[in-house]
Amino acid sequence: MGLRETKKAQTRQAISDTATRLFLDRGFEPVTIAEIAAAAQVAKMTVTNYFPRKEDLALDHHEVFAASLARTVRDRRRGDSALAALRREHLAAVGRRDAVAGFSGPEFAELIAGSPTLGARLRELHEQREAALAEVLAAETGARDDTPVVVAAVLGAVHRTLFHQVLDLTRAGTGADETAAVVARSARRAFALLKPSLGEYAVRVD
């Protein structure tokens, strides 16, 4: 990135970090945009320019999250099915303790669980992720029926379930390493159950 882009990225991150500290201290709903702007020492309009929705100050990986499944399928290796690519990437994300897979500190997991607003936004992001995956599957397979939508719904449900398993274990005080081990086992079982029906679906041939 150039200097201008670097400065913008730093400002965005500083605003998000400030907002997260306030949310963890007081809860999501009570904190206002004006308070976040004052604490971050920026104008209120600067906050809303970077984050049009207050929820995305907390869920600041929302764009990466919503695009993640579609990107994995679009970038899969030659010979890989959509299922194989998603299985491999999910296990890698768990190994990295990636936020996109649900990993966070216990306080942040409690913040999400305790906020109806953040819960609703997270459901919306799961739906967006599923819709993006369906679009890529339709483009990759040339399907003219609703098969890509159905497949995306199944694969999205698996990822959503595993994401919430990470959150639940984190809230229960389970350490990141143990959580990763438990969720990796769950993921392997879930993807194995899907292999008979989806193991040869959307295989990359070029």
TrEMBL record:
SUPFAM superfamilies: Homeodomain-like. Transmembrane segments: none annotated. Keywords: DNA-binding, Transcription, Transcription regulation. The keyword Transcription regulation applies. This is TetR family transcriptional regulator. It comes from Actinocatenispora rupis. One of its GO terms (molecular function) is DNA-binding transcription factor activity. InterPro entries: Homeodomain-like_sf, HTH-type_TetR-like_transc_reg, HTH_TetR. Residues 32-51 bind DNA.
